[in-house]
Amino acid sequence: MKILHIVGARPQFIKLAPLCCAIKDYSASTSAAQDPPIQSIIVHTGQHYDYLMSKVFFDDLQIPEPAYNLEVGSDRHGRQTGLMMDRIEEVLIKENPDMVIVYGDTNSTLAGALSATKLHLPIAHIEAGLRSYNRRMPEEINRVLTDHISSLLLCPTKTAVLNLQKEGFSTILKKGNLLDASEKIPLPHPSPSHDQRPIVANVGDIMYESVLFSLQNALKTSRILKSLNLQTNKNEFIPYILCTIHRQENTDDQQKLQSILEALNEIADQEQPVIFPAHPRIKKLLGALDNSSLNNIRIINPVPYYDMLLLQNQAKIILTDSGGVQKEAFFLKRPCITLRDETEWIETVTAGMNIVTGADKTKILKAYHTMLKDKPQAKKPDKSLGHPFGTADSSTLILKLILKK
Q1: Which helix (H) or strand (E) holds 328?
Q2: What is the pLDDT of residue 291?
Q3: What domains are defined for the chain?
């Protein structure tokens, strides 16, 4: 069987890693005569292209080198998506895979899904069913369109399944909290007829699996805390707040960005700095704002994945507009403040580990002081009760589904 993965951005590399590992283990254990190994082809669109946002993830997570790097780079949404489709289509025609796998909600996701469906190739969407119900978000458009042309919708949570049910999708073969991937499941034919319905399954969150594995390596190898003077020679930790901002709704609105910075400035002090890994584009935007008084905000370059995990793992509180960082904070039992007006990951809010504030300075500061006072801690996953993001075996469930005849 030939599987083709389409990725292009940091969160997708993190989701890809466990599935690559599962495919490798499966291929190593099969009998070539009866069950040939899986041919796994990685296509990197080049949406994230510098070392700290791309290749370092392949290195750290031990992902095989991409067979194709399309080197699309940054551009306007329409042009970037169009360039990706043009180059992805050439690869799909050449490789003619049995299944195309897309991840998440980036332009790479949509470009891969559109290219595959126009060639009548079946699509598996990992992280299907997420909804913010904010159509002004490019990610929302990408995920909705991808879901409605995919053959296999692999949901990370019960909420995602319910979102798809509201849109007319049917769910199948659920056992407890997750899909029972051991049952017989008819996959759509490679050229599905119009009346065939896509398969919807709750397989848990593959990112949860990746974080648990990667944290162990991060604890052994990362030296980021000492390099930033956040850990003393006596292995004592200095309290700090971690912040990430990247979404257009915040970065392209000077008023919102200024409001966030003012809140960070009130939070930060010499004994409890705010650590802010910022992409060069964000640094340029910050330079145009009134931030002369932000002496205790330590703006640093983007860091490799293991370093970022360690920064999150030790942070007192995390402020972010990233969907992935919200989940990582939850997995690492760190309180989170989401700098958006809504979140797809309502499970983190329901658990009391995440407060959604938008870019409103007053709301950010109120949430911060609430977190300091309440000191929330995520509950330890209990398999008997069902963890909201699954049981850290998503890659195995996904692979079983893909291989079903």
Answers
A1: helix 323-331
A2: 67
A3: 2-205+390-403 (3.40.50.2000), 210-374 (3.40.50.2000)
Q: What is the reported pLDDT for 75? A: 76
Stretches where the chain sits below pLDDT 50 are 32-33, 51, 173-178, 180-195, 381-385, 405
How far apart, in whole angstroms, are the C-alpha atoms of residue 388 and residue 403?
A: 25
Return the amino acid letter for 129.
Answer: G
Asked if 209 and 285 touch (Cβ cutoff 8 Å), the reply is: no
**d(C-alpha 60, C-alpha 279), whole Å:** 19
Q: Say which residue the tokens 């899904």 belong to.
A: 113
Catalytic residue set: 246
- Quote the pLDDT of residue 180: 46
Residue pointed to by tokens 């126009």: 118
Listed in sequence order, the residues at least 6 apart from 105 whose beta carbon sits closer than 8 Å to its beta carbon are 127, 130, 139, 140, 142, 143, 146
Answer yes or no: are the C-beta atoms of 365 and 263 closer than 8 Å: yes
What was the pLDDT predicted at 52?
Answer: 52
Sequence-distant (≥ 6) Cβ neighbours of residue 293 within 8 angstroms: 265
pLDDT value of position 183: 40
Closest of 132, 105, 2 to residue 47, by C-alpha:
105
Take residue 237 and report the two structure tokens written for it: 């930790």
pLDDT of residue 178: 46
Q: Identify which of 326, 335, 379, 323 has the alpha carbon closest to the alpha carbon of residue 239.
A: 335
Q: Alpha carbon of 377 to those of 312, 329, 372, 397: distances in Å?
A: 14, 11, 12, 28
Q: What is the pLDDT of residue 264?
A: 92
For 374, phi and psi rounded to 5 degrees? -85, -25
Tally Cβ neighbours within 10 Å of residue 89: 16
